[in-house]
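S.,

As promised, the S-adenosylmethionine run. Input:
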Amino acid sequence: MTQAAARHWDEWQRRRTPGRFADWADHPYVFQRLCAHAFGDPACDFFDFIQNSLPELANAHVLSLCCGDGAFEQSMLERGVFGRVTGLDVSPERVRVGQERVHALGGELAARMKLHCDDVNHADLGSGRYDVVFAKSALHHIENLEHALPAMVRCLKPDGVLVTIDFFGPTRFQWTEEQLRARSWFWRHRVPAALRLDEQGQPIPEIGRPDLEAMIAMDPSEAVRSGELHALLTRQFEPIHDIALGGALLNLLLYGDIVNRFDPDKEAHRAVIAEAFELERLLMEFGVLDSDFRLIIARPRPSGNSPASVPKESFLRRLARRWGHPP
Ligand SMILES: C[S@@+](CC[C@H](N)C(=O)[O-])C[C@H]1O[C@@H](n2cnc3c(N)ncnc32)[C@H](O)[C@@H]1O
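Predicted complex:
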């Protein structure tokens, strides 16, 4: 499984086309809207939010899991959010590209960033070593959460903190009925016809649930246990912030290469994205859609202090709470 995932990500790194968006949140206008919704301030991004919440991390030693080529971590160092980063990724090619880029930078920034090849499913992360565990688009690739989550707790110093920005949506992208219905309606009724064509002018097919066998053959680590991740993570870590970033509609709307059809400089394209955000927020508010992506800042729970599981509030009860009628 891990070998196959490593091969997939090696190949992904080799095929990466500079200047093209890799996913929905790569798109600058989407990123701007996402941050505005998440932090209530269009001028605040992830870097600012983490820095404002935990200014002491400017000197922190950070372990970054599934760091890829470490480009985001490098920005964290450049923006003064973190002090020093040790990154781990299973893909030798991604690590090699990251190491070369960091090496070419030279100077004190290069000295503050080390990348290694390792498998988070089995890696020994040590004990009491790091001030922060950072995981961006990372934990949803981990199958052996029974090893990784306790290892993440163990490797933190006392007062250490977890910062994760990740996908917590349906395991192996088996989208909910509500997601597919919302996406299909929006695609057919609110996206202009020209944007529903690919670069060759062919109609882009509707999104469905991916075939499991094909998905596992392509990348067995993709969303391998993402549907369980939030419950398992919050059993070991107590959130200080757990921020819904959305994505249950937006990620599907702009899935794969579709995001590249939306030109950030075209007002009409931005208007479609803005409207999709509005609908997504409304459906989240009414409990029809969950937030597939979340930013969580958390501390390890004192051992044996797992929270009692809280039953999910029903859609009707939430509607009633919102509009002031009994369910
Ligand atoms: C979606 S990418 C995210 C990369 C980076 N964190 C970012 O946000 O750009 C997922 C990364 O997880 C890595 N990965 C997958 N399974 C892994 C494992 N078992 N151990 C370590 N890294 C893994 C992949 O090689 C890939 O670089």
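Residues 2, 5, 9, 66-68, 72, 88-91, 94, 119-121, 136-138, 141-142, 221 surround S-adenosylmethionine (CB under 6 Å). The longest helix spans residues 267-285.

- D.
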